[in-house]
């Protein structure tokens, strides 16, 4: 479509249809996870194909084309590849005994009472080092699931801990795409944004650790006496080491798959044919997730073409009258964009130019604006059940992503800390901002 997009509130209704389906099904069944996610999104996509942009009438073929272009976005296809490779790696690590060996090693080394906060801190460290929540979730979800099963803990709760730690690094890391997008959009240095960001979210991380210290981790004395086959831990060490070295997530997953396959062949866990079958099995676990990602991309394409995103941006910024109002409007904008696109980087890139314009108009510090863009987008990204993070963790465990959301305590806490930051105008900077190099 070559014509300018006219803002249109009805353009947002496809994603609202999905939310309505989830809520209605949850109320009727007393189970918020009852609605099959892929089915819900397919219904929302079908509803989206019934709509039209303002003052235009598109053919079904044209709307399908828009949907396909959105679903075939390069970022969506990359996400599909990540999901499939993550499934292959997970299946291999189970079949060669890598997951069980890593769990036993962790339980032997970490004090029983500290196992859950230690898992959160480890996830924070890895995600901060590698700059991607998806890579962290891929590497540590299998370990988290193994810990949960060994200790008799709630699998959704432990995955909520993994997702929480992953979002810590997604928000703060110097190499995170959200950090880069936020700082570039506001023209500030990475270090300046980090200083503004860490002062807001560090209390949330500390509170999360304290909460986890009060969760009863049960007893696992029988595991402490098990011998650990260190060779089987090697694939996880390799994938974590490659991630910390800053390698591309595809390369990281490839190294993990290769190392797990070679380990399994070396220790006789499977034959070459069984190895290939294991890889196929893991990828099949991720097929629904891949289809969900493509469907979401298509729905976002339709909402953009129908003017839903444009209307949202205009509605959230038209009544700004003060610096605090500008910051709150920017936070609301990037939050709603993340809810509608299920992609925090896209949300930041979309909201960034408006944030910069409002910041200049109301003299808001761009370092704070970059921080707020990242905090609020990562907060909702770590809670939405149709976001890549929860979808991936849920697919690995074979559970509904809606079951994980209530345990994503850190994303919830940084949302509260972000609102307090706006309310009190903290942190403040005494030195004027310098342009990023």
From TrEMBL:
GO MF annotations, alphabetized:
antiporter activity
Where do the Na+/H+ antiporter NhaC-like C-terminal domain residues begin and end? 168-426
Tagged with keyword Membrane: yes
Top-rank lineage group of the source organism: Bacteria
Q: How does it sit in the membrane?
A: Multi-pass membrane protein
**CC per GO annotation:** plasma membrane
Q: Which family does it belong to?
A: Belongs to the NhaC Na(+)/H(+) (TC 2.A.35) antiporter family.
Q: What is this protein called?
A: Na+/H+ antiporter NhaC family protein
Species per Swiss-Prot/TrEMBL record: Salinimonas sediminis
């Amino acid at each position: 479509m070559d014509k300018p997009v006219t803002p249109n509130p009805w353009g947002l209704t496809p994603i609202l249809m999905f939310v309505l389906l989830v809520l209605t099904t949850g109320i009727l069944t007393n189970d918020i996870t009852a609605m099959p996610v892929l089915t819900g999104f397919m219904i929302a996509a079908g509803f989206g194909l019934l709509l039209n942009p303002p003052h235009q009438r598109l053919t079904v073929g044209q709307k399908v084309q828009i949907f396909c272009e959105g679903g075939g976005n390069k970022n969506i296809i990359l996400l599909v590849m990540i999901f499939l490779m993550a499934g292959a790696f997970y299946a291999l690590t189970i079949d060669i005994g890598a997951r069980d060996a890593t769990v036993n090693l962790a339980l032997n080394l970490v004090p029983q009472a500290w196992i859950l906060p230690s898992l959160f801190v480890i996830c924070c460290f890895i995600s901060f080092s590698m700059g991607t929540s998806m890579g962290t979730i891929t590497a540590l979800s299998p370990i988290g699931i193994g810990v949960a099963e060994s200790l008799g803990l709630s699998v959704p709760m432990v995955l909520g801990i993994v997702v929480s730690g992953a979002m810590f690094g997604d928000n703060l890391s110097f190499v995170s795409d959200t950090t880069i997008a936020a700082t570039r959009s506001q023209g500030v240095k990475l270090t300046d944004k980090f200083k503004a960001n860490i002062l807001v979210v560090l209390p949330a991380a500390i509170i999360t650790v304290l909460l986890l210290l009060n969760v009863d981790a049960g007893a696992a004395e029988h595991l402490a006496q098990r011998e650990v086959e260190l060779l089987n831990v090697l694939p996880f060490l390799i994938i974590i080491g490659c991630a910390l070295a800053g390698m591309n997530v595809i390369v990281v997953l490839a190294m993990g798959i290769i190392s797990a396959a070679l380990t399994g062949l070396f220790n006789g866990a499977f034959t070459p044919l069984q190895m290939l079958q294991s890889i196929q099995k893991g990828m099949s676990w991720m097929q629904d997730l891949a289809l969900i990602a493509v469907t979401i991309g298509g729905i976002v394409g339709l909402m953009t073409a129908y003017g839903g995103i444009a209307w949202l941006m205009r509605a959230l910024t038209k009544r700004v009258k003060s610096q605090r109002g500008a910051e709150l409007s920017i936070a609301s904008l990037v939050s709603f964009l993340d809810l509608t696109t299920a992609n925090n980087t896209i949300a930041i890139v979309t909201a960034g130019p408006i944030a910069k314009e409002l910041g200049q108009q109301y003299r808001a510090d761009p370092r704070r604006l970059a921080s707020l863009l990242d905090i609020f987008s990562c907060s909702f990204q770590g809670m939405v059940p149709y976001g890549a993070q929860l979808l991936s963790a849920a697919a690995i465990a074979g559970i509904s992503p809606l079951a994980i959301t209530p345990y994503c305590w850190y994303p919830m806490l940084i949302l509260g800390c972000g609102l307090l930051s706006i309310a009190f105008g903290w942190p403040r900077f005494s030195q004027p901002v310098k342009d990023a190099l």
